[in-house]
Amino acid sequence: MGGTLDFKVRKTYYSTIVAASIRIFNVETRVMATKKVVVLGGGYAGISAAKTLEKKFKNRPDIEIQMIERNTYHTLLTELHEVAGGRVSPASVRIGLNRLFKTDKVQIIQDKIDNIDFNDQLLYSANGSYPYDYLVIATGSRPFFFGLQGIETLGFKLWSYKEAVVVRDHIYDCFHNASTVTNREKRKKMLSFVVAGGGFTGVEMAGELGEWKNKLCKQFSIDREEVSIYLLEALPNILNIFDPDLANKCKKRLEKLGVQVLTQCGIERVDKDGIYLNTKKKIEGTLIWTAGIQGNPYLENMDIKYDRRFRVEVNEFMQSVQHENVFCAGDTISYLYNEKPLPQIVETAVQSGESVAENIGRLLGEKKMKPFVPNYHGVMVSVGSVYAVAKLKSIKLTGLMATGLKHMVNVHYLFGIGGLPLIFDYLNHEFTDRFVTPRLDVIHNDPLHKNVTQF
Fold first, then answer.
1. Domains in the chain: how many in total?
2. Based on the domain organization, do 155 and 284 belong to the same domain?
3. For the chain, which terminal residue's Cβ has fewer other Cβ atoms within 10 angstroms, N or C?
């Protein structure tokens, strides 16, 4: 009798222990399952961060990853000049996000975030709110106009897929319309183009326009001498990131294409009558603005420290100096490395995206974070379709060799984010599927909405 009672007591005791253990395990599992990492932005930095997180946590059901992007596609910003200059189809710079994430580990949400509550850890849009445990801000950059009158409203920008198409169509229309006009002054205004900014984007845009001009003049029977293309740079030289000898080679190539390169020449204001320069000259024509960039102004009035150009202040771990669970990558960063600002180039975006993903992984694994150490391989710029200059460490390349290298870099990036299918698409767009006529060209739409939560 006593033995039976003792057995029952022990059975009840152990059953209670097991049940309590199960409850504790279930609670811990639920707590762990709430760990949500949200990547805000689908540019170079956002894609890099999300893919690194996907790889790192592919076997971790307790970690959820979301990417919130206003578009259903990733844009190859470094190739926008090819679209704006009429060289390739717009589809060539747009990659559906669903093609970049093959598993369900990264949930893609198409939405526009309007506000962030860093205390409650919530992202707000017109459609609702999104909670997060860790946030990666990778919203890229926007044009900066230096407070100059008229540029934002009267000038064309080259900062998105849609803007590149608008620029392309406008240039084509200018030549088409000029061919039907006999008034010399009106034709001159239609056929005058000003590219403001002598950095990478400005030089590449001017080079594309210089090449496309010849084809358009032939198509519409316009004398090349009637077309004026200007590249403006406020500093003494274009491409200040390059050595002077390489920058000078770019300048000579632009001049060979019919581009007038004006250095130490800035814009004072723009109105409906023309573009007014600090040299007291006025140019009537189309303005394409590529001269300045800043972080995303949507951060204004939010509770996070940023500099005067809306770039978030971060520490050596690319972590917000104000919020420990908020990281930044790409053009969103305000940080001095070796007492110099990080350059706003693709390598910075990709490497910083990888770095923040790795550090989030270390935090979740209760390990020490590692500082971001950039490793730049070089810089390159194209001037038209068959000429480029490049500097890789101490090696300098020009002409077709540099052009080939630029294609190799693009192929390497595309393979890294999407594999062979993206390489085949790239080669097709660059070498066979040539652009013909705006508004009539066939855009090979990706199935952009597959695996995308859209509101």
1. 3
2. yes
3. N
- Does any domain span residue 410? no
pLDDT tens profile 74-127: 999 999 999 999 999 999 999 999 999 988 999 999 999 999 999 999 999 999
Q: Is 407 domain-assigned?
A: no
Total-model pTM: 0.87
Contacts with 116 (C-beta within 8 Å, 6 or more apart), sequence order: 122, 123, 124, 135, 302, 304
Rounded Cα gap, residues 415 and 55, in angstroms: 15
Do the strands 128-131 and 122-125 form a parallel or antiparallel pair, or are they unpaired?
A: antiparallel
Segments of 144-277 assigned E as strands: 156-157, 192-196, 228-233, 259-263, 267-271, 274-277
Q: Which amino acid is at 91?
A: A
Is pLDDT above 50 for 19? Answer: no
Let me know whether 29 and 39 are in one domain.
no
Angular region, 276: left φ>0, alpha ψ -120 to 50, beta rest: beta
**Does residue 9 lie in a domain region?**
yes
User: What is the pLDDT, as a whole number, of residue 439?
Assistant: 58
In this structure, are 227 and 342 located in the same domain?
Answer: no
From 308-317, 348-357, 427-436, the region with the lowest mean pLDDT = 427-436
Q: Tell me the pLDDT tens digit for each residue of 386-412.
A: 999 999 988 999 999 999 999 999 999
Q: Where are the beta strands (DSSP E) in 173-273?
A: 192-196, 228-233, 259-263, 267-271
Q: Are residues 191 and 317 in the same domain?
A: no
Residues 357 and 254 in one domain: no
Q: What is the pLDDT of residue 452?
A: 37
Q: Are residues 259 and 238 in the same domain?
A: yes
Interhelix angle 420-431/400-418, rounded to 10 degrees, is 140
Cα–Cα distance for residue pair 377/409, rounded to 1 Å: 11
| Residues spanned by the domain of 261 | 151-291
Helix axes 346-364, 44-56, angle to 10 degrees: 30
